[in-house]
Predict the structure.
Amino acid sequence: MAQVRGRFASRLGFLMAAAGSAVGLGNVWGFPSQTANNGGGAFVVMYLVLAFLLAWPALMAELVIGRHGQANIVTSMSLGRGITKRFGALAGWAGMLTASLILAFYAIVAGWLLGYTAAPVSEALGMSSAASWLTTFDFTRNVSLTAVFLALTMAIVVGGVRGGIEKWSTRLMPLLLMLLVGLIGYVLTLPGADEGLSVYLTPQWDRIFDADLMLSAMGQAFFSLSLGVGAMLIYGSYLGPEQNLPRLGVLVTLIDVGIAFLAGLLVIPAMYAARHLGVEIFDADGLLKSSDTLLFDTLPALFGQMGGAGDILMVAFFALMSVAGITSSISMLEVPVSFVVERGWLGRRAATLAVGAAIMAISLTIAANFGALFGLVIMLTTQYSQPLVALVMCLLVGWAMSRHALLKEIQSGAPDIESSLFWKIWPWYVRLICPLCIALVFAHSL
Ligand code: PFF
């Protein structure tokens, strides 16, 4: 039966948790590398536009479903009646599965990040073989570090909304910002960094309406705002009726976009500083090396050539990435855990353990078949499931919720909303424009 659900203690707590979910590897890694390869500042401009014109309205749909439902993803998405309701629930299951699969590969990458954070420390302690184990691709190392990262994630989630998620997000997000700003300040003084800065900030205007650029920017915006997997939905469900959802949604979007922008100020100048030291930063096609080479070869090569300061920088850089990763992973784990708890199957502790173990099993399977599965799982979840579930969420809010119910839901925390521009435009957005645009991304990925 209805049990007392957790709730964020403060608006700030929600903001830190939701921004923590949004700010992740997608910001500090995906965004800078996409920008570098998509016309520099032109991508930044298009990303900003799409984040506010498309991703924010879709984020609002997720938050509304969650706060309205006051329940886990499957229950909250069972909107409307009959077949609609069953379809919503099914999409909820799909979102939950997607969250679990994303967490399974995210934890592998985050495990590497932990390894790279610890390596310079073990080196300094004279444990060179440990340091090289930590940074060498190998099955045992991969799964051991994944297990460590998942255990950390579980340790936070087991504490619940206030005692775990909110508490740790409000500690870790300021730390992330400090590390980021500190690193930017340092990297921008390095020789060669100014060239990176101008590549990053100079828009190639002729590319701004490039179809590929727009689609990449849109996909990036959806992934970055954690849409379509129920992470934002579940955080929204821990909000009380007095909270102003449109305002909170704007703030989360602003923080997410702001941190992505800052990450670009760090990563791209750092790459050009590495180039200045003779590190090859372009691939065979003349594009900036992105994906894993950027993170695990180029930047460590830069740090490696800088002596003692390089070690400190490397620890700070990978700690930053790890922090960004963990505040995202807790939001993913919360999606299935809240479901298991609210179904009454298990208590929170047992649910966290059971779901964590199941996700570890998926990570193990991926790690054991790395070549075949890693890229495939990333592609299926981020390019297919995420946009598809986000699409269903928009449709549910746009068509299965009555205009009256929708207004009531938003009005409870924003009494003047009915006369606002937001209310005139947004319902049409979720009804038509967002679904259409998401369908476009989806069609493109097919
Ligand atoms: N928003 C995260 C990032 O940018 O790295 C990724 C993410 C987090 C996706 C949480 C999905 C999710 F549920």
